[in-house]
Each structure stands twice: as C-alpha cells, then as structure tokens.
C-alpha cells in the first residue's frame, strides 16, 4: 500500500505464513501529480527460525461497488458511500487498520 512502512510482525510474537509456491504481486496505483517520478518499491523478508506464537492475518473489505449501491449523484459533495462491514467468526485482536479512500474523502 502506498506510503506504508514495513510490517514487522515480531513485535506481536507473530508471523505471516507465506506458503511455498506463493506468487507475490505488487499492485501499484498512483495519484497523478503532473510530474514524472520514479517508484522505489522494496520487499524484504525475515525468515522465522521456529513457528511463531501467533499468526498475523490480513483481510481487505470494501463497500458494495455495484452500480445501484455505489452511484454518486452528480454535483453531490456530501454523498456517503455504502458501509463496509466485516464479521469475525472467531475471537481476534486487531492490531492495525488503514481506511483507504484515495484522498477523496471528506471529514
């Protein structure tokens, strides 16, 4: 995700399982600023010497994006998007989250 520093799961006594044969995909998207720039994306790993006490999981949720639910009326600067919801079926601890709105939100 743009502008995010490294994830370090060690501080939570956790690790993120990356199964053998997993494809790692960089999904890059940019906001135009009128100037050509270079991207300096990096990827690094710390390999665990033993199984971590906890497993760090990543989930992404989104508002409905169908045309009926996500239809922004013209000239409406106060339109509210549909709610994004997630239900956890087991107890968990949320240690980080990032709302993502492409700098088009209004607070």
Describe the structure.
This protein is largely without helices or strands and 107 residues long. 0% of the residues lie in helices and 4% in strands. Strands 1-2 form a two-stranded parallel ribbon. It is extended and about 55 Å long.
Secondary structure elements and pairings:
Layout: E1 14-15, E2 54-55
Parallel strand pairs: 1-2
Taking the sheet with the most strands, its summary is:
2 strands, parallel
Oligomer state equals single chain
Helix content: under 10%
Relative strand content: under 5%
Number of strands: 2
Structural class call reads little secondary structure
> Distance between termini?
21 Å
**Unreliable sequence segments:** none
Please tally the helical runs, counting DSSP H or I stretches of 4 or more residues.
0
Order of helices and strands: EE
Radius of gyration: 18 Å
Shape: extended
Q: Average pLDDT value?
A: 81
Strand order of the largest sheet: 1-2
Attribute tags:
little secondary structure; two-stranded parallel sheet; extended; 107 residues
Summary, kept brief:
Helix content is 0%, strand content 4%. With 107 residues, the protein is largely without helices or strands.
């Amino acid at each position: 995700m743009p502008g995010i520093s490294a994830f370090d799961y060690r501080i939570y006594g956790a690790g993120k399982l990356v199964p053998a044969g997993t494809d790692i995909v960089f999904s890059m998207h940019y906001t135009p600023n009128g100037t050509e720039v270079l991207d300096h994306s990096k990827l690094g790993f710390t390999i665990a010497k033993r199984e971590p006490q906890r497993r760090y999981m990543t989930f992404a949720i989104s508002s409905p994006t169908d045309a009926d639910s996500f239809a922004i009326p013209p000239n409406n600067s106060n339109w509210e998007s549909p709610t994004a919801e997630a239900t956890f079926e087991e107890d968990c601890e949320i240690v980080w989250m990032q709302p993502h709105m492409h700098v088009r939100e209004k607070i």
